[in-house]
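agent> Task received from the user: take the single chain below, predict its 3D structure, and emit structure tokens. No templates, no multimer pairing.
agent> Plan: (1) validate residues, (2) run structure prediction, (3) serialize to tokens, (4) report one or two observations.
agent> Step 1 OK, no nonstandard residues flagged.
tool_call: predict_structure(input=
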Amino acid sequence: MKAPAPKYAANDGVIAAAQAALGDMLVEATDLVGEVNLTVDRARLPEAMIALRDGAALQYQALMEIAGVDYPERAERFDVCYMLLSYTRNHRIRVRVTTDEVQPVPSVTAIWPVAGWLEREVYDMYGVLFEGNSDLRRILTDYGFRGHPQRKDFPLSGFVELRYSEADKRVVYEPVQLAQDFRNFDFMSPWEGAQYVLPGDEKYVAPPPPPAPPAPPPAAKVEDKPAAAPEAKGAPTPATAEQVKEADDSVKPVKARVRKPKTSDGPEDTGIGKASPHAGAAPAESDVPQEDAKKPRKPRAPRKAKGEGEA
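)
tool_result: status=success, residues=311
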């Protein structure tokens, strides 16, 4: 099932339209991984935003987000990125300016009032100043917080920690006190060959190498023998026809070691008894006639219970 939302419009012609609308305000324009990125002059940011909003070929009416990026190795270490959306063209672009900790960025709250909250978030997380924002305060961190958490040089443990003091009856800020020293874990598996010595391994003394095994005696010279016959006649073999014939003639037939061949399955051979109850001669000492012995006996009449048949 296809997604119900419509696909975004293609980027064809967007950079050309932006270059025509912005002119010398545009510093750089790129189209990477399906996204259009426009870098504009920081001092002329509001003017560039109005041109992108009101341009006939652009019409980016909505400001969706403002985000910060930190590159500590650069002179202007911060990027302030503005995500714009065109309702009429169903297209998005990213507008970017660069700055540092001192030089402020012009505020766009006069163009989009929602930018007041978004600029406060970038100021709180990165420390970027916005000129023209009438309420530039922290929005995510606590009162009296030191530093800006999303800077790359901000310590993982922070500068101070807070707790409720029962003696002072209020929340107090104190220097961070860790239960143990902070350790950097390299997550290198020692089973795959770590590039360092594990604690305790420096005490290990390697045993001396075992003595070399004696050299094996020289192998006896094996005389050339005819090639062995194949496993089945007709199978591929490097032997010649004469060698195969000699191998077949050398095989002697094996006779079965049977003293008496089996000819019947009588009782004397199998040992399972007589074929029937009346088979064979009657015992010599029996006083029962032979003819009566063959006749089956009549079943005995059941006894009458007491009280039956009496008047």
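agent> Step 4: summary for the user.
Strands lie at 26-32, 35-40, 62-70, 78-86, 91-99, 105-106, 130-131, 160-165, 170-175.
agent> Done.
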